Amino acid sequence: MKIEVSRRKFLQGSVALTIFGGSTLSSMNLLGDHDLNRKELLNKKVPTLCEMCVNKCAAIAHIQEGIVKKLDPNPRFPKSRNMLCPRGVAGIHALYDPDRLKYPLVRVGKRGAGKFKRVTWDEAYHAILHGTKEFKGLKQILEEERDNRSTIGYCAGEGMAEHTFKSFMANKLGSTNFVNHASICLQTTVSAHALTIGAYGQADLTNANYVIMAGANRAEAIVTPDTMDIFKRTRGRGTTLIVIDPRYTNTAALADEWLGIKVGTDLALVLALTYIVIKEGLYNKKFVAQNVNGFDAYREHIISNHYTPEWAEGITGIRAEKIVKIARDFMAASPRAIYYQGRRTTWGFQDFQLRRATAIFTALGAGIDVKGGIVFGKKLTLASHTVNTPIYANALGRIDQDVAAIVGANGSWIGWRNKIIESKSPYPIRAMFTYKQNPMLSVPNVAKTKKLFEMMDLVVTIDTMPSDTVIMSDVILPECTYLEREDPIKSFGGVEPSIALRQKVIDPLYESRPVFEILKGLSHKLSRPLWEITQKYDEDVIDEIKERGESTVYREDGFDLTDAFSHSQEQINQECFTKEYGAEAYSKLREGGVYYPNMESYFKQISSNEYEYYPDDKRYYSVLKEKPKSEIYSGDCVDEKELASMEGKVATKSGKVECNLAFLTKKGVDAMPTWREELYRDTPKGKFRFITGRHAQFTQNATTNNAMLLDLVRENYVWINKRQADELMIAHGDLVEITSPTGSVTIKAYPTNKIIEDVVFYVHGFGATSDALTLGYRNGASDNMIIADDIERVFGSAVMHETNIEIKKV
Amino acid sequence: MNFAMALDYQSCINCKACEIACKEENGVQLGADKQRIWVGQRESSIFGNPFVNYYPSQCNHCQDAPCVDVCPTGASYFAEGGIVMADKDKCILCKGCMEACPYDARFVDDKFVAVDKCTFCYDTRISQGETTTACQATCPTKVRLFGDLDDEEGELVKLLKRRKFFVLKEAEGTVPKLFYLFPENDTHFAENSIAHDTTIHTWESFKPLIEKAKQKRESQWISI
C-alpha cells in the first residue's frame, strides 16, 4: 500500500496508511447482472466471506426467491478449510434480525435515553455537520478548535472494512486520535512476536508434534485454520497438546494434558522451562548460534536469576517435575514444537514479557520458519491504490502517547479514554465516531466509557445493531450486514496463501448502506464546509492558496474529501486484482470466491470431508532460509533439526531472533523477559481472581441478539470451584453478586471442578443494557462492569485478569 | 442403498455448528429443546481431576426401529436407504414414537403440530444428489461421515473396516446406524468415554447384524 502525500509535512503522531480511491477503470459490468433473468437472480448461490467473527471464513450463500436461506462452507478457501462454525451458519439471523438498525436516526431525547427520530440520509449528514438543538455539529466544533482535526476521536472494531473507515477519518478528515481493539485484545502478543521473531506468524498445527497452549482456547475461541488443524491430531493422533489454564476449557478436554495454573504466573512457568532447556543444553545449538541475538546474555540472565522449576512451582502451582518433563519433551519434539502465540492476550501486567519469553522458547527449539513450527508463509500481492491525502497543520498528535512506553497508531483504549474523562488530555476530544465497535461492553470499566460518551459534543455511530454504544449516539448511521455489501478484496498470507472476496449476496435491506457508501455520502456533505474552516485557520493552506489559488489547492492537495470515493468498491477490487492476475482470473475469483495461482491444478477433493489446497512440496513452510544443501537434505532422509537450524533472516531489525532488546531499557522496559514480583498481584484470602474468555457460540458482544445462537447459550454463568462453592453454600443456578472496586453484577452460579480454587470466570459478551435488543437485553452479566481499568506499561493494553472480586449469594 | 453415519467423536469440540446447520438447513423450530441433532455431554472427575466427553448425536436411523412399529397412522416409516422419517401430515401427535425411541431423538414441532426428527437431510440434500448432510459439511473437525453401508468400496465401509467402533444402547436391539469410532491411540480417553459393558465392534462383527435387520425390514422401505 502506498500513500501519496502532496504537501510538505506529515502529521505528528502516526497516520494509518491504508488507501482507497484511485485510477480509472474499464466500464465492464462487474456483476453481470444484466445477463441474468429474474429467476436466476432470485435463486442463486453466491460465495462470500463470513463476518460473524474476525476469521473471515469462506461461505456460500444459498438464495431462494431473493431470500438467503442457508450458509454453507465454501471448501475452496485454505484458511477456513471446509467448515462454517455455529456463528457462521447463524449469520442469516444477523441479516434478518428484526432489531436491526434500519434507517438513519438522530437523537431527540437526553443522550443515552434511547429516544431517536427517523431521518433521511441527508438529514443525518446535515445533523453531523450542523448539529441540532440537542448537540453540536462538526462545523461548530472545528471552528471552535481552530481546525484541530484531532479533536475528533474515532474507534473501530476489526473487520474487512475497518480500514475504509479508518482511512477516511485519518487520511481525509485528518484526526490522529484512533483507538481500536488491539489494546483490548492482541497487542502484547503481536508486538512481542514482531520484536522477537520478526512477526506474529502462524502456528503450523497441521505438522507440529508438540504444542503448549497456555490460556488460548482454540476449541471455544475458534481461530481458523488452527482450530480445525489441532483437534484432529491430539491424543495419540500426531501431536501432544499441553493445555495450561486456570480453567478446564473445551480445549483442555481435548488435550493430552491439562495443568491448572495460578492466574498471572505464566511468565514464571516459561522462564523455568527456559531454565531447564539452557541448563541441560537441550536447545538447538546450531540454530541459536546462527539465528539468535543476545543468547549469551539471556542464558546468563536465566541462570543467575535462578528461574528454577522449584522456584516456578511456588509461584505457578505447577509441579517442578512436570515443568522439567515438558521442557524436555518440547525440545525432543523440536523443531516441530510450538509454544502457541495466543490471541487475546490482555491478561496481566507482565504480558509483553510473557509473550517475548514464549517466542524465544519456541526459537530455542528452532521452531521458527519451519514445518511444524511458527511459520511466516507467503502473501499474494494485490495492487495498491493511492489516496490524495491532505495535511492539516493544526491537527495535533494523539493524546495518549505518554500513557505507556510504546503507543502505536491503534492507541491504548483505556489510557486514551481515561485521559479524556480525567481532563488530562492536552487538548479536548469533542466528537466521537464509532464504527462496528461496542466500547460500552468491550472496554474495562463501563462507567468510565459511559462518561466518555456523555462528555462528547457529538457522537456518531455506524453499526448494524442497536448496541449499548449505539444508544449513546447523537447520529446513528445504519450499516448493512456483511451479506449485503462488497468489502475490500483481501490477500490471506500463510503456508497456503490465497485471495478471497466478500461479495454482496443480496441488496441492502431497509435504508442501510455499506460503510463505503456511508462515508461517500458524508464526504460530499462535509468537504466544502470543513474546507472553509481550514482556509481560515491553517497557515500552510493560506500560504498555498496565495501561491496557487483556492480551487487548485483544494483539488490537488487532497482537501476534496469526495475524491476518495470516485470509484465503487467493486471497481477498486477489480482493479487491485486484475493488475496482478488478469481478467480471466478475476472472473474465476468472483465465481468461486477464492483464487490463488495454480489453483486449478492444486485444489482437489481428497475425501468427502477433506480437500487439498497446495501439494505439500508447494506450501510455504520455510520462506527465509536458503535452499538446503544436499548432505542434509536428500530425498526422504531429512534431518529436521539440522534443516531447521539453517540460517534465515527473520523480519527483526537485525534479521535474528532477539533475546536482548537493549532499546527497551531506555523506555523503562526490561530488555529481557524478567519476572517482576512487584507486577504480580496476589489474591487475598476470601477474595477471588476474575478471568474472562470466549466460547464458540458467541462473538464478543456482537451476536448477543442472534435468535439462533441464543438457543445454544441464553446467558452466561459464573464458574466457581465446586469445593469453594460448597463452602459458600452456592449451588448451581443460584444468583450471586460479584463486586470489584470497579462495579458489581449479579449472575447465576456454575460450581464446577473445571476451575482451580480462588478463581472465578464468566464468558465475555453478555449483559447488554440496550433495550432495543429484544433478545439480548439483560442476559447474564458484562465482564467489563467489574474489570478494573488498569493498563500494562509497555503498550497501554488492558489487563483483564488482574481484578480481585468478592462473591456472595444473593 | 443403506444410509448410515460414522462419528469420530473424540474430535468433537462441542462448538454446536452441527446443531445450527441442522436448524438452518431443515427449518427446525427455534428453541433449545427443539433439536434434531445435539452434542451430548458427560462431565465428571476422577480424584478431583475433571474430564468432559462429547457425544454428537441424532436419530440412529435404527434398522429395526421401534418408532416405526408403534406408529398407529404410518406417519413413522422407512424411506429409501432405510432412513427413518416422520410424515407430518399423518402424525396425530400421540407421541408413541417419542416413548419408543431409545435415543430421545424425536420432539414435537409446534409449527406443524407434529413430531419432528433427523432425516439425514434426505429431502434437502441427499435426494438432490449431494453426498453429505448439513451437520457433516459444516463441522470444523469433520466428526461425521455419511455414507452407504451397501457400498463395500465406499468411504464409510472402508472406514469401518479400518477402525473399531461401537453403537449406543446396543442392548435395545434396534440395530442403530450411528457408528462411534473407538479412540485407538488413547486408552485413557477411551476408558473414560465408554461404558464398561460397551461392545467394541469390527466391521466383521457388526455386518451380520446389519444384514439380518435389513432383510427383516427392507420390504417396508418406501421410495419417496
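Chain A touches chain B through 48 residues (CB under 8 Å).
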